[in-house]
Amino acid sequence: MVLRRFASTSTLPPTIRQLLSSLQTTGQETKVQLSGWIKSVRRQKNVTFAVINDGSCASGLQAVLKSDTIPHNLTNGASVRICGNLVQSLGRGQLYELQVEAVDVLGECNPEAYPIQKQALPVEFLRDNVHLRARTDINAAMLRLRDSVLRTLHTYHEAQDFHYVHTPILTSSDCEGGGETFRVSTASSAPSAGKSHHPSAQAEFFSQPAYLTVSSQLHLEALAASLSRVYTLSPCFRAERSQTNRHLAEFWMLEVEWAFINHVGDVCHVVEESLKNVLLQCRSENALLWKDGDEAKLKSLEDASRPGLPWIRMTYTDAIKELEKYHASSRVGFEFKPTWGRALQSEHERWLSERLVGGPVFVTDYPTFLKPFYMRANDDEQTVACFDLLVPFIGELVGGSLREERYSHLVEAIARHGLNEEEYRWYVDLRRYGSAPHGGYGLGFERLISWMSGIENVRECIAMPRWAKRMLL
Question: Are 103 and 65 in contact (CB under 8 A)?
Answer without folding.
Answer: yes
